[in-house]
Amino acid sequence: MRLIAVFVVATSLLAGAQGPVPDHWVGTPKRAAVNAWLRGKTAGFDGVIDFDAVTKDPAHAMQIAPTLHMGDHLHPNDTGYNTMANAIDLKLFAR
Fold first, then answer.
1. For the whole model, what pTM was predicted?
2. Span 39-64, pLDDT tens digits
3. Would you say residue 2 lies in a domain?
4. Domains in the chain: how many in total?
5. What is the residue range of 52's domain?
6. What does the alpha-carbon distance between residue 88 and residue 86 come to, in Å, rounded to a whole number?
7. Which sign, positive or negative, has the C-alpha torsion 33, 37, 40, 46?
């Protein structure tokens, strides 16, 4: 019997980011692989909150949508945070 629920968040996009972002984090297959594993049915988590899916730019899949960041391609703006908050299914926490 599990005493606590475990939720995970798919990692956000970093391509185009300005500032101290290590090159090996930006748009790597490792990030995609981690997100695929987190989303997978075999990972065993109680839920996945997929900020990656709701913030990506449809025209540039490895970047945050231009309307959702503060101009640095890294940090969400108010609209970005609102989008992320609305992506959380509150039913996940009803236990």
1. 0.74
2. 887 667 888 888 888 988 889 877 88
3. no
4. 1
5. 7-93
6. 5
7. negative
